[in-house]
Amino acid sequence: MLQRWGGRVASLCQAVSGYRVPPCGCQALLTCRHHTCPPGAGHPKGNTDSPGDGPMDTPPGLDTSPPSDQPRFVGGSRAWGRSLSPLHRLSQMLPPQFLSPEIQDLRSAESEEPLLTHSPPEGSSGLDSQPDGPPAPLGTAFAPGDLVIAEFKRRHYTEFKKMFSLTDSGKLNSNWGVVGHMEIVGKLPGQRLRTSRGFEFLLKRPSLEEYILLMKRGPTISYPKDIAAMLMMMDVSPGDVVLEAGSGSGGMTLFLSRAVGLEGRVYSFEVRADHHAIAKKNVSKWRSAWDVRSRNPWPENVHFINQDLSAALPTMGSVAFDAAALDMLNPQVALPAILTCLKQGGVCAVYVANITQVIDLLEGIRSCRLPLLCEKIQEMSVKDWLVAPSVRKDGTVSQRVEPQGNTESELEGNGADPQSDTEMLSNAVKPFGQVPYIARPLPWQAGHTAFLVQLRKIRAAPTRTEPEESS
């Protein structure tokens, strides 16, 4: 067997050594696999390497023609015109002046006509030019009473982030400098402003998620990832009437208020007076800032009740709830009172901190024979990623390393500085496909926050009192 395989290898090596590749084929192999050699290039008669050469010898047994039953690949794409490379398909949507020479070569190799590029005017990076058309919308400028977030990042990481309300005589003091509130009034969200020390702060309006994470807290807040899952469990829609047991700091209350809309209502119960006051203050602060930034006022659909849930529900009359959100230490104690006001088929979304509370909740439902069905128990996890251009400590963008030999020795032999090109192009916009990226999870992640339990109110099937008649 070894002798037979050895003979085959020897014959194959002899056949390959006798095969001569045309010059254009060598160039295609050395540059890029997307370059193709047109028929007859470099050999006018179709069977010679160059004028004056003899016929190109094709060794016996070596078939160089593509099989007929296989799809032909032309210029790095299939025969029916679909590109194989996502980078190539993405480059088709970009203007030619933003493409690197390598991408331009790939595009020009597929078409007979060369790719025409238009260089931007001197002193311009090419990004400042805007196409002719209607002006871009500007949005609403900052005004006194508006909520603002000032953020400063250094090398992909946030070093300063603060939310505050604009006033006529206020100032933002930080280790990175001072900014007066009147300097921010009139600016648009997304603009940058220099501090007294020369640092640039990014100004933006807080989203509801950012407001909940940065607002003043009393008890521990429900994190937005858990709030979103609870809203999906309860399937809250505009016009619903929702019960909230445990106002906390008002985070869940704001999301429920936005979900039910103008025609809905939210009844938020809190037994502690200090937590009740903090929740009302946070909701009022968000509503006031919303009225400054938006033409449509925030709906006033939240009713705060500083009373025990079991004692307050019997006095509310004939209020029927479509869903209920519970964030309590012992939710199984309040379930019997909630079930009397919850609609048939309604969902209770329960927020508990540890798994022992989940066991106590299910045991309380079982021992009290409550008409509740546990549909799911979830623990939400979110992983944040960092995807950004690779930047050195001095702020310059790293160079893309080509898969070649020992480039450092070549540079040293030529007397070239390896960082000279990077320093010259640090302020210029590099073409598409020339900047290396880093992609990795952030070093800090939000771990376990809570267990979410979905309970649905059910009705047992009636028991049969008479035996079935036999047919």
TrEMBL record:
Superkingdom classification of source: Eukaryota
Q: Reaction catalysed?
A: an adenosine in mRNA + S-adenosyl-L-methionine = an N(1)-methyladenosine in mRNA + S-adenosyl-L-homocysteine + H(+)
Q: Which UniProt keyword terms apply here?
A: Methyltransferase, S-adenosyl-L-methionine, Transferase, tRNA processing
**GO cellular component entries:** tRNA (m1A) methyltransferase complex
Classification via InterPro entries: SAM-dependent_MTases_sf, TR61B_FKBP-like, TRM61_C, tRNA_MeTrfase_Gcd14
Q: Does the keyword Glycoprotein apply?
A: no
Q: What's the protein here called?
A: tRNA (adenine(58)-N(1))-methyltransferase
Q: Write down the species.
A: Xenopus tropicalis
